[in-house]
């Protein structure tokens, strides 16, 4: 046995303690310095709010508040009850634990995302070193990856930490496989794919890295087979789980209109994907054109842009294959990026054809290749400068690119600080996006104060209507424009129009329909020219349908409580108010409504006790809503001695609010 291989036939890992061209600098200290720099750049995220799908997957996801129901996640009941992201069970478990530990502190959740991103960078360095990569190359790759501008979306949006988790566990699985720890590799691969199936391409990346072996002797074929099988077991297990839940490998469903290929066919979508993926490469190399929103579109194979993009990608892939023997690092960078981009290439159904976050994992080999090129440029440059400038020259090209990427990263991340700013930017950069216009319209309606002057309300509603009309014009088969119109009509108290628009939204919406059922039930009670019996029956029917499909929706339970309150059924109203509070204890709407009910029933002592018990939700309520509630029931509250109220109510609301 030669000294270059271990007893198992696998070349030994590189010495992590050697610093290669970094001289006497401690590798661990250098790595900590790079991680600290990455963390520093991301510090502004700690002040960001929840945006995008954070509301659906975290803020209003009642399933996370019921850990005793976790077992049903691994049964078809998870689909029947519309548990968010049920086909990503690892992510749901992670979010449940995250909520139990961090609550709904947006700052803490953003800190967790930053920590996950740093962990990805650290594991990447470790794996590259085990593969035999020089330390300066491994560290530079982590630095560039950590500050790459296209990663802003994945790190800045809490609900997109699925990409961070999939990358972290996927790279850890590759590391375990490279070290011959096959059981750990299989379990980590399972964990990665249970976060997001885009990690299913990790076995291909691992085979390329080990098979091309740019820095050490190629390992035996048996090592490659065992490692690939171990990594593939995790992928196969998650695919089997998805099939067991949905009866198919497509969790979105064949009739899901959010998937563009279901509307226009697969071929036009694949044609459009060629310029998209060439655009991804441009955005990674030159960070221009990054956007929080892209519009889905079809194309034809004979379109000039498609032909040029296809030719460029084909030439790049061909060059990568040609470099396999003589330039294995170049081949790994190119072919590895193609392999990791495959799951998001629109070959498989996706609700969004394009998003910056899709390039989080595929950018790993791109960063590796780019850093190798920049270090080579620095080495060439160092030969043309004085001795005392050689070290500076060696790192200058890499440092310049990292600084540029990091600067753009900071500016790009700022887009995600809150929903209003995010969707305003989204509309500017994707003016034909139905989603951006619809969400902006709803935000305008939601932000109109209840006590605003009539003229101000009319002006705001006119702005919202313009957004709704633009959204419907861009995509009449999408539920969000209909919801925009429905909520605008409800704000205008045009109950017939609101009901009609909610029905139109439900007709085209494949899922996430708890809010639609809640809206239908609530406006049913106010339909004009309709008998009271019919209105009541409609409200009850929509509630029953919604609660059967979305039992973990706090919004739907709160709506049910209000409706039963109006229907003079206080027992049912209290049941649903209580359930809504259990599913979203930080949201005050159900608490205020429950207090109102108890006061209407002549039970101010119970109302005060409830406020004391649910102090968090009370403090989260709008001060105007709290004041109005107390003012409406001042007479009932006067039945109590002030001292009793003060001692029972630590907030002092009844004693101090006018």
TrEMBL record:
Transmembrane segments: 29-52, 107-125, 137-158, 164-180, 187-209, 229-252, 264-285, 305-322, 329-348, 360-381
Residue ranges of coiled coil: none
Signal peptide segment: none
TPR repeats: 554-587
Record bears the keyword Repeat: yes
Entry keywords, A to Z: Membrane, Repeat, TPR repeat, Transmembrane, Transmembrane helix
PROSITE patterns found in the cross-reference section: TPR
Keyword Repeat: yes
Protein name: Tetratricopeptide repeat protein
């Amino acid at each position: 046995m030669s000294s270059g291989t271990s007893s198992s036939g696998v070349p030994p890992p590189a010495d992590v303690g050697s610093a290669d061209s970094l001289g006497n600098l401690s590798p661990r200290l250098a790595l900590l310095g790079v991680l600290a720099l990455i963390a520093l750049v991301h510090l502004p995220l700690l002040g960001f709010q929840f945006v995008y799908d954070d509301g659906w997957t975290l803020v209003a996801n009642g399933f996370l508040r019921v850990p005793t129901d976790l077992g049903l996640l691994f049964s078809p009941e998870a689909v029947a009850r519309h548990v968010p992201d049920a086909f990503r069970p690892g992510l749901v478990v992670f979010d449940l634990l995250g909520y139990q530990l961090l609550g709904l502190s947006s700052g803490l959740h953003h800190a967790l995302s930053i920590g996950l991103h740093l962990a990805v960078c650290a594991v990447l360095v470790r794996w590259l070193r085990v593969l035999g990569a020089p330390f300066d190359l491994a560290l530079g790759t982590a630095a560039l990856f950590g500050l790459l501008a296209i990663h802003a979306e994945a790190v800045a949006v809490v609900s997109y930490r699925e990409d961070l988790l999939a990358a972290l566990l996927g790279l850890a699985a590759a590391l375990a496989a490279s070290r011959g720890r096959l059981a750990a590799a299989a379990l980590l691969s399972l964990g990665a794919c249970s976060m997001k199936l885009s990690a299913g391409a990790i076995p291909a990346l691992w085979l390329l890295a080990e098979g091309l072996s740019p820095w050490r002797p190629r390992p035996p074929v048996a090592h490659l087979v065992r490692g690939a099988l171990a990594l593939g077991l995790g992928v196969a297990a998650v695919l089997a789980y998805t099939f067991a839940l949905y009866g198919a490998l497509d969790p979105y469903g064949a009739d899901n209109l959010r998937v563009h290929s279901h509307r226009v066919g697969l071929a036009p979508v694949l044609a459009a994907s060629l310029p998209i993926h060439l655009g991804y490469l441009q955005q990674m190399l030159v960070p221009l054109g990054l956007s929080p929103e892209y519009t889905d579109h079809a194309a034809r194979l004979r379109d000039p842009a498609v032909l040029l993009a296809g030719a460029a990608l084909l030439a790049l892939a061909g060059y990568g294959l040609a470099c396999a023997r003589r330039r294995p690092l170049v081949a790994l960078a190119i072919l590895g990026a193609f392999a990791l981009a495959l799951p998001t290439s629109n070959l498989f159904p996706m609700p969004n054809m394009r998003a910056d976050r899709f390039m989080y994992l595929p950018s790993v080999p791109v960063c590796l290749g780019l850093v190798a090129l920049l270090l080579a440029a620095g080495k060439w440059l160092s030969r043309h400068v004085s001795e005392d400038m050689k070290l500076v020259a060696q790192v200058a090209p890499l440092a310049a690119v990292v600084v540029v990427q990091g600067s753009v990263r900071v500016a790009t991340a700022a887009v995600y600080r809150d929903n209003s700013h995010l969707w305003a930017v989204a509309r500017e950069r994707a003016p034909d996006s139905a989603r951006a216009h619809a969400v902006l319209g709803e935000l305008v309606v939601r932000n109109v104060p209840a006590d605003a002057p009539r003229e101000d309300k009319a002006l705001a509603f006119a702005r919202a209507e313009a957004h709704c009309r633009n959204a419907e014009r861009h995509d009449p088969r999408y539920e969000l424009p209909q919801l925009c119109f429905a909520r605008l009509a409800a704000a205008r108290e045009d109950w017939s129009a609101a009901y009609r628009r909610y029905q139109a939204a439900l007709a085209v919406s494949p899922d996430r329909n708890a809010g639609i059922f809640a809206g239908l039930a609530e406006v049913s009670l106010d339909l004009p020219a309709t008998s009271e019996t019919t209105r009541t029956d409609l409200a009850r029917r929509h509630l029953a349908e919604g609660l059967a499909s979305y039992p973990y929706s706090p919004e739907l339970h709160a709506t049910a409580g209000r409706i039963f309150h109006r229907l003079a059924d206080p027992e049912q109203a209290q049941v649903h108010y209580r359930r809504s509070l259990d599913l979203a204890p930080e949201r005050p709407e159900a608490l205020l409504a429950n207090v109102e009910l108890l006061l209407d029933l002549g039970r101010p002592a119970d109302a005060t006790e409830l406020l004391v018990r649910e102090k968090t939700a009370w403090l989260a309520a709008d001060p105007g809503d709290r004041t109005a509630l107390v003012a409406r029931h001042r007479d009932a509250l006067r039945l109590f001695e002030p001292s009793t109220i003060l001692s029972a109510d630590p907030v002092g609301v009844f004693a101090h609010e006018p």
